Sequence to fold (266 residues):
Amino acid sequence: MKNILIISSKKYTKLKSFTDLIKLIESKKLNYLTLNVEDNETYKDFLNSETLVVSFGGDGTALKAMKVSWKHDLLFMPLGTGRVGYLVNKSEHVDKVLSSWISGDVHVDKRHAIIQDNNLVLPAFNEVVLIKNSPTRILDIVFKTYDQTVKLRADGIIISTSLGSTAYNYSAGGPIVHNSLDSIIITPISPFSKFPRSVVFDKYSNIEIQIKKKQNFAVQFDGIVESEAINDKDIKHNYSLSLKSLNVIGTDNSPRLDLFLNQILR
Fold:
């Protein structure tokens, strides 16, 4: 039976647009559960193979909801609350999208995550960041791909999807890449050595990142620190785009670049 898991937070569920969403869902006689974005284990009994996961909020809320959808192989719909981010969409077409989903004739876009060492448990839909913890030292980094090796000294390195190109990658000087292009973007953070601002690789690329020994650094997945180390030997990780996809509805795969650019150019 089709039902909807809504992931949001208290500040968003107080909005009129959220109330309108609930009325719409109820008018279609769908069961739903609203989950606070910080809760982790209270929804499992509600899920079935036909559950639609809906995020209601900003990009941060969307990223957390995406991980729920990914973990349970469920369809995902990201909704914004007014000021539209890069990952979320306006709710003006929700009625039409929900009707298409109910009838089984809905358009699905596929999103692929950056994964480390083929580990599907920790997907990064925006980026993986390897960054120094010591304020006085830079990192000695080596990255390899297609049997080619590049040495880099920098505060860190960003391994981004095209979807995440407007996040940390953009702040570090990287390019905006349309999210219909499956790609991996490598962008250094404050490079000391002479290095191009970014390199964009195709979706088939496998990238090995090596951090030289005796360095203090952290690895972040979509802004969350997953590991920290002062390594007594060289550490290597491999990064690639996942073959598995996150299946998204309610978007035409065309990010609102006009809104994004107009916000940052004010």
